[in-house]
Each structure stands twice: as C-alpha cells, then as structure tokens.
Design goal:
Layout (H helix, E strand, L loop, with lengths): L2 H8 L9 E7 L7 H9 L4 E8 L12 H15 L7 E3 L15 H10 L5 E5 L4 H9 L7 E6 L11 H5 L1 H9 L3 E5 L1 H4 L3 E3 H7 L4 H18 L11 E3 L4 H7 L7 E5 L2 E2 L5 E2 L6 E5 L4 H16 L2
C-alpha cells in the first residue's frame, strides 16, 4: 500500500506548511536501532520522505565490502513488513571515501543530488557514515546551499573523541564540515541519552503487527550477539535508540534553547576536534526531549499497526 494509506491510519491532520522534504541515509544492518529510526521517519506525517539510501559500515570489525548491501536488504525488509510500497530504497557507496576529494558514484548519491536540486531545502537524516552525503557534495558542490544535514554522530565538545559513525569515514565528515551545507549535530553525549528498556519495547512495540514484532525480535537477537559486560552502554535490559535524534530535533519546538552554535571544527587524525575560529557555524544540540521522542514513536506504531 502507499505510505499515505498508512499515515491515514494515524489520522493526524497537520498544516501543509509544516511539511519538509527529507531523505534518510542509514547503515540499517549495523545494529538494531536504525530500524526504529527508519520507521519513525516513515510514520511522521510532517516528513515527505523522498527516499532511503543504504550506507556502509565497513570499518566495523569483520566486514569486507558487503555492509552497504546488507543495509539495503534490511531497508527492503522493513518496507515489506511495514506494507509500504512507494518509498524508494537506493544503494549508496559500498566503502569509505579514498580522500577528501573522492566522489564515488552510486544510485543513492545520484538520487540525493537530484532531490537536492529541487526547489526548497532538503533535510538529510544521516544515521551512520557520512559517505553518501560527502560523495554528493564532491560531485555536485552546487547542492550545498539546499541541504540541511542532520548529523547523528561525533564526540562531545570541545575536545571531541573517537565516535562510531565518524570512524566509518572520517574524510567524509571533513568534506561536510568544509562545505557550505547547513549542519545540525547531535553528538554522542546527546544521542546516548535516548535510552529505553526492553520491557518498554516488549509492551509498546512488539504488539504492533508484523513490523512491531520484527523490530523487537531483531533487537533482542542483536543484544545476544553483541552483549559484552565491559561495554558500559548496555546494562542487559536497556538499549539506546540513538538514531531517533534526527526525528527529535525536528519535532521539538524552537524555543527550548537546547542547542548552541559552534564553528565547524577541524577533525584531527585521532578523531578529536581542533578549534577552528574560521569554520562555518553549525548547530550543536545539548539535549533532546527523550520522553516526547519515544512516546511519539510508540504512539505512531500503535496507531498504524496495532490490531
């Protein structure tokens, strides 16, 4: 069925002027939280989701050229279980940039350029490596002024620190920071706050049809594969839905005062920041509303898919 049919089940009548064009860029098979963010974007009527582009996660141990394809297949699985037939899924770049000037071609990069050249701003929710956005910026610098890049990644300011999404392609982050594209960043200190318990997910997500059951079960399976007592992010009964920050920053009102402006830093070889007073201003979030973001996700899944 069409996405509009699924959104009709939710039944929100929102102002036309509030709608924005948005593209999701995701390493969907890297862990288990991108799947929740993908669905949250798709179930938000304010977003005109023009497509979903698969990203690689090649710098994760054990991957040798297939991670982007795994992400693409995961996107297809989600769309099938969510009964969404009219949302384009596209393959992105299969590996990191070879340099800051590299402009690898892929159907996802070409699609991003095409959408960015249409009138009005294009918001790009980047949930993993920055490769596809950087490749598009290098291939078509003219699109930069039309892009708002929602960057879920990077270490906290002022020093920064190595962070998973940056590690996937540091040169791609350097391309973004040096470009004229607008950047809204939620670094690891902020996306790490979007925490949920397995009990919440079992009660609120699992009953929501085929897609709800899949979302819960794939996360539970990932937990057993990945759990390490020495990895302090996971207690045994929690998960961090960190990728949902790209929805949160667009749902929240503009009066909260929960972000500040930084000059785009220089990303050093050790993936920490070097202050760059001449860098462009970027928006850096200090916090997000975790309650509102999670409850919005749960309610939309229930309205769209719970029997």
């Amino acid at each position: 069925m069409k996405r509009s049919d699924v959104l009709a089940r939710i039944g929100l009548n929102i102002p036309q002027a509030s709608r924005i064009r948005l593209l999701v860029d995701t390493d969907a098979k890297n862990e288990a939280d991108d799947q929740y963010a993908i669905m949250h974007h798709l179930l938000t009527p304010m977003f005109d989701v023009c497509g979903i582009v698969a990203a690689h996660f090649e710098q994760k141990a054990g991957y040798t050229g297939q991670s982007m394809e795994e992400s693409f297949r995961e996107i297809e699985t989600l769309l099938r279980l969510a009964e969404l037939e009219d949302v384009p899924a596209l393959r992105g770049c299969p590996s990191p940039l070879k340099s800051v000037k590299d402009a690898p071609d892929s159907e996802g990069v070409r699609f991003l350029i095409q959408e960015a050249r249409k009138p009005g701003k294009l918001y790009v929710a980047v949930l993993g490596a920055m490769t596809n956005v950087a490749a598009a910026l290098n291939a078509a610098p003219d699109i930069a002024g039309n892009l708002v890049v929602l960057w879920n990644g990077g270490g906290p300011y002022p020093e920064g620190r190595p962070e998973f999404n940056v590690m996937q392609d540091p040169d791609a982050v350097r391309v973004l920071l040096a470009s004229e594209a607008e950047v809204w960043q939620t670094d690891m200190s902020v996306y790490g706050s979007l925490e949920v318990t397995l009990a919440e997910l079992k009660r609120r997500v699992y009953p929501c049809g085929k897609i709800g059951r899949y979302l819960y079960e794939q996360l539970e399976e990932e937990y057993h594969r990945e759990y390490n007592p020495g990895f302090l992010l996971r207690s045994g009964e929690n998960w961090t839905l960190g990728d949902n920050t790209t929805i949160a920053v667009l749902l929240m009102n503009g009066w909260r005062g929960n972000w500040h402006t930084e000059h785009a830093p220089v990303l050093k070889e050790d993936l920490t920041y070097q202050a760059n007073p001449g860098g462009k201003p970027i928006r850096v979030y200090d916090s997000i509303d975790v309650r509102m973001t999670l409850e919005d996700l749960f309610c939309k899944l229930e309205l769209a898919y719970r029997p």
